[in-house]
Design goal:
The chain is α+β, with helices and mostly antiparallel strands. The chain folds into two domains: about 140 residues, Uridine Diphospho-n-acetylenolpyruvylglucosamine Reductase, domain 2 (2-Layer Sandwich), CATH 3.30.43; about 375 residues, Cytochrome P450 (Cytochrome p450, Orthogonal Bundle), CATH 1.10.630.10.
């Protein structure tokens, strides 16, 4: 009997162990294929670095997608990253799984540059981000706030045109034209508008604080140069004590200087009597602080850090990127004279030459709005800022993305997908947005064109950016005729870095096309 009992117990134990092995063993998931070409320790990090041959990272990742498919894995040192170049997969990720892909990666560059992720555009997903996103959407970028700031846009663009006219008047040649670097003027214009919205100060026509404002513009450019950089500790965390190349020291210096500039503006606002009309963003943030709307995060960040970092987010989002799109738009138009002529004919039809362009004219300028869309399609952000997956994801195609994986979307490749944009996807064709693609909206639900980001982390300043792009381009094309030097085509070489900027100056010959009294 004892022998029989032992046999029964043994059989039962065997069956339990067998069931455990079958039902409790770890599931084998189908991971996106691993790209070839990885290197020891560093993995595929070299794909995101500057190439000696000049091939940009987005083009190298596109080549890998042709080999491995629309979703594949790369190793950035010891970290796993998934690269997506499919509109359908992107749509699923940022709709069905949007919460799981809404967190930012904690790179060394962003930690140093953003006060330990206090700048909400770069902070991981959570209560702090949700609260500041809600506040900025309601208080800084609402329709009411944009209407209150309308005079800033209108006055800024008028001053921009006057500056160009003054340059033409002082430097015109016998031909009636003068050479101007429009890229530099766009940088000054957009930073001036952002500075006026944040601080109430203009960089034009004021000597007081001018050097600090101009230096802030340089710091913003340096910020973007460093923000997309991977350092040794990003690939191999135990190398954090090293600062190979001195990049971390440079990042800390940029963050410190940026903080001091905005901190000085905040101190100046506090010394002055509160403005009841709250005409700039610093006034708004100070008012929100006084109402206790920021107190819940004082354990994580102090109030001054929250105010300054939020204003820095506005400065970063509204200066470099907008001027870059305008630069590309003019460069493309100068290389496509037919499109430039068509845009000016539309302006003459709906505005005439007896007055300046107003914001109320923009809805009638259908072709000009198509030019902006086409420019955003071809020359907006190339690769999305990396996200960190915070929950395991099972895609409908069968692939599994584990928690902790980094996610990169090749927006450049999706915006050139021939299945969406036809065989001429690489060509500048604004007319597509008036015919075959007229129903495609910027950041629409179809994920065909999303230059301002995806999901709940889409840029909160989208409406302001579109207003500025349309108003500036319309006024410039309306006020001036322009052509290239000696009829040579524009060089469309791109820069490396986080934003897609034109590498060379935008040198063009300009001449007034309106009655001089309108300048």
């Amino acid at each position: 009997m004892e022998l029989l009992s032992s046999a029964v117990y043994g059989a039962v134990l065997f069956l339990l162990l067998l069931c455990s092995a079958i039902f409790l063993r770890p599931k084998k998931y189908k991971l996106p294929p691993l790209a070839g070409g990885g290197r020891p320790i560093m993995g595929h990090l070299h794909l995101l670095a500057n190439s000696p041959t000049g091939e940009p990272p987005h083009a190298r990742l596109q080549a890998l997608s042709h080999k491995h498919g629309p979703i594949f894995t790369i190793n950035l040192g010891l970290r796993r990253a998934v690269v997506v170049s499919s509109r359908q997969i992107t749509k699923e990720l940022f709709t069905t799984h949007d919460t799981a892909v809404s967190s930012r990666t904690r790179t060394t560059a962003l930690r140093h540059l953003t006060h330990n992720f206090a700048i909400f555009a770069f902070t991981p997903y959570g209560p702090y981000w949700r609260h500041l996103r809600k506040l900025t959407s309601a208080e800084l970028f609402s329709g009411r706030r944009l209407e209150l700031m309308k005079h800033v846009r209108v006055d800024g663009v008028a001053e921009f045109i006057r500056q160009l006219y003054s340059h033409w008047k002082d430097n015109k040649a016998e031909s009636g034209t003068t050479l101007v670097d429009l890229k530099l003027y766009f940088l000054n214009l957009n930073f001036d508008l952002v500075a006026r919205m944040v601080t109430g100060k203009s960089i034009f026509g004021q000597e007081e604080g001018l050097d600090k404002l101009l230096r802030c513009r340089e710091v913003v450019s340096e910020f973007f140069d460093q923000a997309g950089r991977f350092v040794a500790s990003d690939a191999v965390p135990w190398l954090s004590w090293l600062d190979l190349g001195g990049h971390e020291k440079r990042m800390k210096g940029i963050a410190k200087e940026f903080d001091e500039i905005v901190g000085a503006w905040l101190s100046e606002h506090r010394r002055k009597k509160n403005n009841p009309s709250q005409e700039d963003f610093l006034d708004v943030m100070m008012a929100l602080s006084g109402q206790g709307n920021l107190n819940q995060f004082q354990g994580e960040y102090d109030l001054d850090t929250i105010i300054k970092s939020t204003c820095q987010a506005v400065i970063l989002g509204g200066s470099d990127t907008t001027s870059s799109v305008l630069t590309w738009a003019i460069a493309l138009l100068l290389n496509h004279r037919g499109a430039l002529t068509k845009a000016q004919e539309e302006l003459d039809k709906h505005v005439g030459r007896e007055r300046r362009v107003a914001e109320s004219d923009i809805p009638n300028l259908v072709y000009l709005r198509a030019i902006i869309k086409e420019t955003l399609r071809l020359y907006s952000v190339r690769l999305s800022l990396p996200r960190e997956v915070t929950e395991d994801i099972n895609l409908s195609g069968g692939y599994h993305i584990p928690k902790g994986t980094w996610l990169v979307v090749n927006m450049w490749q999706i915006h050139r997908d021939p299945e969406v944009w036809s065989d001429n996807a690489l060509e500048f064709e604004p007319d597509r947005f008036m015919t075959t693609h007229k129903d495609i909206a910027v950041n629409g639900p179809d994920f065909k064109l999303f230059p301002f980001g995806m999901g709940r982390r889409v840029c909160p300043g989208l409406n302001l950016a579109m207003q500025m792009l349309h108003l500036v381009l319309a006024n410039l094309l309306h006020a001036f005729d322009m052509t290239t030097v000696n009829g040579q085509p524009m060089d469309l070489t791109e820069t490396e870095g986080l934003t897609n900027a034109k590498a060379k100056p935008l040198d063009a010959l300009i001449a007034p096309r309106l009655p001089l009294s309108l300048y």
